[in-house]
Amino acid sequence: MAEKVKVKLKGGSETVRLPAIALRGLVVFPGNIIHFEVGRAKSIAAIEWAMTNGNSVFLVTQKDMDVDSPEIADLYDYGVVAEVKQLLRISDDLVKVIVEGRYRAKLVTLESSGSFLLATTRSAPVRPIRAQDAAHGEALLRSIKETFEKFLTLNPRLPKDVVFTILTGDNAQFLSEYIPANLMFKYTDKQDVLSTTSLLERLEKILNLLQNESKIMTIEKDIQEKVSEQMDKNQRDYYLREQMRAIAGELDESEDTRGEAERYREKILELKLPQEAEEKLLKEADRLSRMQGSSQEAAVIRTYLDTCVELPWNTETVDNLDIKKAEATLNRDHYGMKKVKERILELLSVRKLAPEVKSQIICLVGPPGVGKTSIAHSIADTLGRKYARMSLGGVRDEAEIRGHRRTYIGAMPGKIISAINTAKSRNPLLLLDEIDKLASDFRGDPAAALLEALDPEQNKTFKDHYLDIPFDLSDVLFITTANDLGTIPRPLLDRMDVIELSSYTRVEKFNIAKKHLLPKQLVKNGLKGKVKLTDTALYALIDSYTQEAGVRNLERAITEVLRKCAKTIAAGEKEKVTVSAQNLEQLLGPKRVKPSFFNKANAIGIANGLAWTSVGGEILPIEVQITEHGSGKLELTGSLGDVMKESARLAITYAKAKAGEFDFDPTVFKDADIHIHAPEGAVPKDGPSAGITLATALLSCLSGRPVRSDVAMTGEITLHGLVLPIGGLKEKSMAAYREGMKQVLIPKDNLSDLYDVDDEVKEHIEFVPVGNLEEAFAVSMLPAGPKRRKSGGQGSRPRTKTAPKPPVKAPAEEAGKELPQ
């Protein structure tokens, strides 16, 4: 036990050494009786020592309540010397004590090495108000009492004796210690008052504390009133609902919709939808709760809410952005298609580097059967996205795209939202198949309805008429397919990144059949390991049994062969079958592909042109025949369109101007009839690119110079014989390659288009660029032989042959062939 504390004088100032207790979150004022619990060993030792040595103890507050062993720097400078009134030991390490504050004192030194804290203190009385500041002090005291009265209206639970003492007291110093000791101020604010020596400053601080506390309590009261009102409303609603449920139970109404509406509310809130969507759906759920369960309107609302809550508002897949893996997957699933694969890998690369960039809509254009739909499915697998497909062929109602309004009976969402719901993901790959087959009528234009959905800047807030709330389509990867860009409206086409897929070459078809089609059909028909098709058999199927841009009919032919083999094996005739080109006719019958009708021998008055169609390129022969003793009549046959007829007249005018150079009498145009014909007359043909072919056939017939049969040509002509550029060169060159042409005459301005022509085609065909008809004639025509007959100044009558297949721009009512514009 420490020695007895002594009182001594130093420099005329009285200091007292007393046991000290460091208080946590508690401030004691002079005259304040307070009880608190003591748990720290040094504090308990200080209390016990005080009880046996005069009962005095120094109480001082810690600056930081978390410090367990405070030093002098951890304590405030001012505290209170108090008298221990009562001590109650609750346990060995916990004591409850009652103390009364005696006077304010300042901490001078602190010894912490002993069994308790020993503080050296100096009495620190408060400086009273000077005479000249008496009026100021009185005004402060009145303000404090007025503010306290307002404070009472907000906190009426104060003890009556405290209220009475404060309102009736007129001793400023007493009130400056009594008010903070009995009101719920922060301990730091109380310590600030205790540490203030000037009484005037103390009163100012107490006034500020009361005013701030009143403001805070006013705000608290407003908050509590609002919360109470909301709670009262909720309790009232709950009470009324329970009453309605009880009434429904008494009436044996099993179709109560309130519980059903509550379940919808829970689902809607769980989805965490945008505010507009959430408010709309909650409103519909409230409407449902007020309806009879058997009513028609309740059924409509149920269907609507089910559709909305089932949509994948927050469900999405994470893109697989491994470029090398994606490339390997695309190459495994599809042969060729270099452009498409490169574009998809570019898309992945951009998304990997800039995930926030929205994808552009991709449009795959090409003939039927080249794999547009299957490559889209492969892209979805590569990205790791869900796949959904919607066919637009024949869609003519705008509501099929954007949905029907709920005012109609049997209303439902449009195809886009239905596809999203089927995919169960908010960022699927959505294939819009056959977008060029959209139609329109009095019910609206579905192509116009697609404008918003396919615009990356607008589809973030796409509104289906049925849902009537925005749905974000900006993360959907749209891929569209088409056979012909000409029928797609320009505003819609402008929103898409077009990738053209050309016809397959013979070698490409062989590789696709061998690596993909045949293995797939062997598994489907249960013939894996039992049937073998040789390479010659596959080539025979391509050359003699199918004639197409894609491989759809080739797959059917393979399937037909395998069915024949399956019959043989199932009948027990053979265990394994090998199919070669030699026995292919035994299985499928005679060859189905007839030779194309075109000039196969050098002939006068017939030239091989090239045409573009929506299913690929074709050879288009042009025949010219001159009959003597006519009247100068020009006959055009073969279902030629207006543009093609104009090209024929251009060729006639050019021939008249060049009569001298080609050694024929120009009077033939007056004394003979000229007949120009394009075979396959039932197929409409149009377009300017047959101009060079028309002129060549005409000049050949007039001059008697044969046209080479291994040369094909395409190009628009002018009145002066210039050759202008055309379109569709890739498909046309494919047709020339397929029919065994050696040279193809093209306009000089189309040289850059050779970049897109397949390498295999360029290896087998020589492309000759020509700028005018003279250059074309020099390549395509052979020297004239001896003239068999010449009469009346007419040109020789050459022998003519014919050749088939048509071109572009068919009238809307007929599906025909077109020559490119």
Fill in the keyword field for this structure.
seven-stranded mixed β-sheet, disordered C terminus, alpha/beta, 25 strands, 26 helices, disordered N terminus, 821 residues, five-stranded mixed beta barrel
Give your account of this protein's structure.
This protein has 821 residues and is an alpha/beta fold. It has 26 helices and 25 strands. The N and C termini lie far apart (115 Å).
Short description:
With 821 residues, the chain is α/β, with parallel strands linked by helices. It has 26 helices and 25 strands. The strands form 6 sheets. The protein has a 7-stranded mixed beta sheet with strand order 19-20-18-17-21-24-25. Strands 2-4-5-6-7 form a 5-stranded mixed barrel.
Largest sheet: 7 strands, mixed
Gyration radius (Cα, Å) is 50 Å
Distance between the termini: 115 Å
Secondary structure tally: strands = 25
Structural classification: alpha/beta
Poorly predicted runs: 1-12, 788-821
Shape descriptor reads elongated
Helix content: 40-55%
Overall mean pLDDT: 84
Number of helices: 26
Spatial strand arrangement across the major sheet: 19-20-18-17-21-24-25
Proportion of residues in extended strands = 15-25%
Helices, strands, pairings?
Elements: E1 7-10, E2 13-23, E3 33-38, H1 41-52, E4 56-61, E5 78-91, E6 94-111, E7 117-123, H2 134-154, H3 160-168, H4 172-182, H5 187-195, H6 199-250, H7 258-271, H8 275-289, H9 296-310, H10 323-333, H11 338-353, E8 361-365, H12 372-383, E9 387-391, H13 399-402, H14 415-423, E10 429-433, H15 446-453, E11 462-463, E12 470-471, E13 477-482, H16 490-493, E14 496-500, H17 506-524, E15 531-533, H18 535-545, H19 552-570, E16 577-579, H20 584-588, E17 606-613, E18 616-627, E19 634-637, H21 642-657, H22 668-671, E20 673-677, H23 691-703, E21 711-713, E22 716-717, E23 723-724, H24 729-738, E24 743-747, H25 759-764, E25 766-770, H26 773-780
Parallel strand pairs: 2-4, 8-13, 8-14, 9-10, 10-13, 15-16, 17-21, 19-20, 21-24, 24-25
Antiparallel strand pairs: 1-2, 2-7, 3-6, 4-5, 5-6, 6-7, 11-12, 17-18, 18-20, 22-23
Helix pairs in contact: 2-6, 4-6, 7-8, 8-9, 10-11, 10-12, 17-18, 17-19, 21-23
